[in-house]
Write a structure and sequence with these properties.
alpha/beta; TIM Barrel; 12 helices
Length: about 270
């Protein structure tokens, strides 16, 4: 059995709207051409690295990318030719939809074959626990968690900072996911990026004490993982390997994996 990369963003022009391309280019001096991937090259690199499967995360963000929920359906449709190599984690933006619209898009993405849902608080400008009365009572967010729990799908929550210009990093504190863990005890919650760089200890402690909270290690340079999480072995069964390819600093699917496999942790932990 090969390796699994639990966190990538495979951008292809076919799933991007003109508005999304315009915004990305405005942010980073024509960055779209540098971020776009060739699927043939990706599959070849996966084969060379013995990466059996990648989880491709696609989510809407009107503030960041000018994208809506339809981008998830376009991604599922485009990547469906690789069902044994690539899955799609989707999402809906609860603070821009009515309760009826939220349910509609969850059903549409589920029927299309989504493998989970992503909440990106700094890009969506929403706290993961804002469904609670004392946090604003955003019913749409509660609907997302209930749907995922009822359909046995994981929720991935971005934690930690984001370097993009319109990101609101105050929403990146993983402590807000603690309420979600308590209120939805059967929901699997994955804290993407483990709160790096400033909330790693919070993410680590939550994974230790909450049975349904997990960490993904994506975007942390593999050679620095033990600097960030020195007690990684204690929660080895609660961690997922991921690269965050093709984000800044990620050298490649293969190179990132090879660096991870070289760090000083037990073979049991790596497995």
């Amino acid at each position: 059995m090969g390796y699994i990369d639990s966190h990538v963003h495979l951008w292809v022009r076919e799933i991007m709207s003109d508005e999304m391309i315009r915004r990305v280019n405005n942010m980073s001096n024509n960055a779209v051409d540098r971020q776009l991937v060739s699927i043939d090259h990706i599959i070849k690199e996966m084969d060379e690295a013995n990466i059996e499967y990648v989880v491709n995360i696609v989510y809407p963000s009107r503030e960041m990318w000018g994208s809506n929920e339809d981008i998830v359906l376009r991604a599922i449709n485009f990547f469906k030719k690789y069902p044994d190599r690539i899955s799609i984690v989707g999402g809906v933006q609860p603070n821009h939809l009515s309760e009826k619209e939220t349910k509609y898009w969850l059903e549409k993405q589920y029927e299309a074959g989504v493998s989970g849902f992503k909440i990106h608080p700094p890009h969506m400008w929403v706290k993961p626990n804002s469904y609670r009365v004392e946090e604003g009572g955003l019913k749409q967010l509660e609907i997302i968690y209930e749907f995922a729990q009822d359909h046995n799908l994981p929720i991935i929550v971005h934690t930690g900072t984001s370097y993009f210009p319109v990101a609101r990093n105050k929403y990146g504190d993983p402590i807000f996911a603690d309420d979600v863990s308590v209120d939805f005890p059967k929901l699997r919650i994955i804290l993407a990026h483990s709160g790096r760089p400033i909330w790693v200890n919070t993410a680590f402690q939550l994974a230790r004490i909450r049975r349904n909270i997990y960490l993904d290690l994506s975007s942390i340079p593999p050679k620095r993982i033990l600097d960030y999480i020195p007690r990684l072995e204690e929660i080895k069964d609660k961690c997922l390997y991921g690269s965050d390819f093709p984000d800044i600093g990620v050298k490649g699917l293969k190179e990132n994996l090879m660096e991870f496999l070289s760090i000083s942790i037990s073979e049991e932990a790596k497995e």
